[in-house]
User: Fold these one by one.
Assistant:
Number 1:
Amino acid sequence: MDFSKLYRPSALNSFQFIALTGLLMSAGAHLILYFFVGRIPAGFNWLYVCWTVFYILGTLINYFGKPNDGHHHHHH
């Protein structure tokens, strides 16, 4: 298995990329809410669960999907 598909930016598919971006943005929002607002909304931590599931799905597609499926759009 090519484990670089888990972390190398050029090997990630769009699902993985969106999930990682979402995780980073959620973590940033978490810090801002914690330090500047003083409270975290109820259920906020579910964001991390959702992004993680999204990343796992993306990883499965990356490993087991058809090669180049959905990455190249050919117009004839």
Note: Residues 61 and 67 are 10 Å apart (CA to CA).
Number 2:
Amino acid sequence: MTQPTQWYFVWLDGPRGPEPQKWSPEGLWGQIGRQDVIVRFELTEREAKLSLDQLAKLHPLPTGS
């Protein structure tokens, strides 16, 4: 029995402001050290099926102090 693929929801510091993305482990490989990653959330199986808009509402961009 194979394990489900673990997905991640990521906020990046993009050229026009924060950008949400969804990464699989293959997409995450080599990306860990990126300087533009603001925050990364590990997703449940249910969350991995959601759209970026839905994930952005569920995991909003953290606000600084």
Note: The longest strand covers residues 8-14.
Number 3:
Amino acid sequence: MWLLFAVATLVVGVVSALQVRGALEREREFRAAPACASAPVRASACVWEQDFTVRTADMHRNDRYETPEAELTLPSGEPWHVTFRNTDPVLSEMAPGEKVVGLVWRGRVVEVRDAEGRSQPTSVGPQEWPADRLGGALACLSFGLPALVGWVWSVLARGDRRRAAAATVVRWHGVALGGTAILALWAQAANDWPLWAIPAIWGPLALLGLASMTAFTLAALRGELTDEAPATPQAPEPQAT
């Protein structure tokens, strides 16, 4: 199980890390895109604000595997299906018949704004994507690498209780390191901080985690985490004559 999780998260982490640069370039391109002079008839690199009416909005709160989504309609009645990464702040307040403004870029709705001026990127929106990729890469790699090292160490340490305990320490500290990356991503998103805030928060936490992993691993190798005291010999019970 550990090997499966380790390999899977490492693959996802590498893929996410490779996507960070492309996501940054796409976000810069979107921010620099000019406003369209008129409604584009085909996918265009300019940005167009289109009025929509909400037909349906579904948060899928009872099914975490379903993506939050909404169906918007143009004034002509043509439907547009839009998905979101989360439900706040706009989707959760949507109601059928409500008017919203969709930001169209390259033929897709990348952001939705309600009548109160609140905006929310869609699943295909370029904004916030670099942060998601960076946070995902840090979380997956910081968990997957210790998990893989700990699994290999445990296989090589069969019969050695001290090394087996040290391998367990390494694996579970990988879980903690992955959690620090998720915490950094959450803090950055909740406070709308720039992208560099993620490594700035994660770095010190990761150093503390690595220091803890080193200390506990050395303690395990010294036998301080395992009970290696020999069992107390019991005196034989006297035989009845």
Note: The chain has a mean pLDDT of 89.
Number 4:
Amino acid sequence: MDFNIVKIGGFIVLILSYVVLRKAFSKFADFTERIGKPYEQAEEMQEEINRLNTKIINLEQQINPRL
């Protein structure tokens, strides 16, 4: 009877450790994903700024054509 209790207790410990490790790896993955995103967003924002600056230059040239 004691042997079955040990098996059941071991199984419960294995399940709990699996859940804890899975949550820890999930949080670590989310953290590393957040670290990597600012660089991607900064590049996208810089591209957007460059595109808008060219539009502004084109519109200024249309408003004030050089004679």
Note: The two ends are 101 Å apart (CA to CA).
